[in-house]
Design a protein that fits this description.
This protein has 305 residues and is mainly alpha-helical. It contains twelve helices and no strands. The chain has one domain: ABC transporter involved in vitamin B12 uptake, BtuC (Orthogonal Bundle).
């Protein structure tokens, strides 16, 4: 039972940055914008988040620093892809390259330093319940925030007028503009939200998951978050399932190596990314009702007046 509890706790921790980053990207893509710079925003968020926490001694300031860093990176993307109507795919890839280099510059002075990780909740009598106590009542604030975030996004998209307008911009920006809605402003806000989530997801890594900073510590999680949005068919409910599924794959491959499974460690390390590719291929082949992606996803919009 202790082993099962340890595995579940590890899966929750590994899935949290995926869920936060993918939630932000889902809102961005629902508005009709394809931002492939999630990996770059995450790694800059990790560097700034660690730097903010290390300099101030506050996990909250560190998380806020990561959010601000991710948002500023997303504004660069918004300026190019929305303001200048540059190709969104090329801009997103450039943003990732920029983020990887910038994070190395920002985090160079923090390599080798350590932090006290984010505190975990402890409720006497509940946290100590076998198996489910620590799972439900012993997590850090990032885990609970990720659940609240996905619930809030679901409510916003499907239960509010603003969410309906955002989805309309993603499905038909010309019609939305004709009705008088500021498409570019809405998309810019969605991009900023996605950047803030990516920055927070990156900051989670050195603030709670592994309390130190190393270059490239996101290790492709931004790309997995992008794949999760497609896996979830742009629906928040499925996004939760996908995030915890891929988190489980990541953790189980580590445990498999510890158990001495006779499979090369290099293959086991590549397993989460291989699973990403396989799931996307199977999902594409199984979809019979046409694409569920927003109709205007990745299409530049230039208002005529």
């Amino acid at each position: 039972m202790e082993l099962v509890e340890a595995i579940i706790l590890s899966v929750l921790a590994a899935s949290t940055p995926l869920l936060i980053a993918a939630t932000g990207e889902l809102v961005t893509e629902r508005s009709g914008v394809l931002n492939l710079g999630v990996e770059g925003m995450m790694i800059v968020g990790a560097a700034c988040g660690f730097g903010g926490a290390w300099l101030t001694g506050s996990i909250f300031i560190g998380a806020l620093s990561g959010i601000i860093a991710g948002t500023l990176m997303s504004l660069i993307f918004a300026l190019m892809a929305l303001g200048l109507a540059v190709n969104q795919v090329a801009t997103g890839l450039a943003l990732t390259i920029l983020g990887i280099g910038l994070s190395g510059l920002i985090g160079a002075g923090f390599v080798g330093e350590r932090l006290t990780p984010a505190a975990q909740l402890h409720i006497p009598g509940l946290t100590d319940v076998p198996l489910i106590g620590r799972v439900l009542f012993g997590q850090d604030a990032f885990v609970y925030f990720s659940i609240a975030l996905i619930i809030g996004v679901w409510w916003f998209l499907y239960r509010t007028r603003a969410g309906l307008i955002l989805r309309a911009c993603g499905d038909n920006h010309v019609s939305a503009h004709a009705l008088g809605y500021p498409v570019l402003r809405i998309r810019t806000l969605a991009v900023m939200f996605g950047g803030a989530c990516a920055g927070l997801a990156g900051a989670y890594l050195p603030l709670a998951y592994t309390p130190f900073f190393i270059p490239g510590m996101t290790a492709g999680r931004g790309w997995i978050a992008l794949a999760l949005v497609v896996f979830a068919s742009w629906r928040p409910g499925r996004l939760v399932i996908g995030a915890y599924l891929f988190g489980a794959v990541t953790i189980l491959q580590l445990h498999a190596q510890g158990w001495g499974v006779g499979i090369p460690s290099q293959f086991m390390s590549a397993l989460p990314y291989l699973a990403t590719v396989v799931v996307l291929v199977l999902l594409s082949r199984a979809r019979t009702g046409g694409s569920t992606a927003p109709a205007a996803l990745g299409t530049a919009f230039v208002p005529d007046r």
